[in-house]
Amino acid sequence: MDIIKMIEQEQMSKEITDFNVGDTVQVHYHIKEGNRERVQVFEGTVIKRQGGSNRETFTVRRISYGVGVERTFALHSPKIEKLVVTRRGSVRRSRLFYLRERTGKRARVKEKRNY
Question: What stretch or stretches form a coiled coil here (predicted)?
């Protein structure tokens, strides 16, 4: 079991931004199109974090042209160039699936206040 843990520790990325469910994040992700490679920014609200160690994933949801789009990223993936937190959300749940039925102003998450 220690060998597996050592391999997992090697694969984990060192600089991870601290974020939580309800935060609005920008994920800078490497996309390969044919023989070209570029960085695409996916910005939205984190609705779920799951797993642990190097298998941890998070799901980001945004509205694009009136359609809800969700994308799941592996947290320690080498394809993630950087992760920027634009807003801190104040939520009381670990899964925000109720945002799927809501649109417009009802789908907003309160911003966390720092006093």
Answer: none
Q: 25, 32, 18, 24: which is closest to 78 by C-alpha? A: 32
Distance CA 4, CA 31 (A): 30
Question: What angle is formed at CA 40 by the lines to CA 37 and CA 41, rounded to 5 degrees?
Answer: 160
Specify the pTM.
Answer: 0.85
Contact 105, 42 (CB under 8 A): no
Pairing between β-strand 67-74 and β-strand 24-33 as defined by DSSP bridges: unpaired
Amino acid code (one letter) for 23 = D
Looking at this protein, which amino acid is placed at residue 1? M
pLDDT tens for residues 29-75?
999 999 999 999 999 999 999 987 788 899 999 999 989 999 999 99
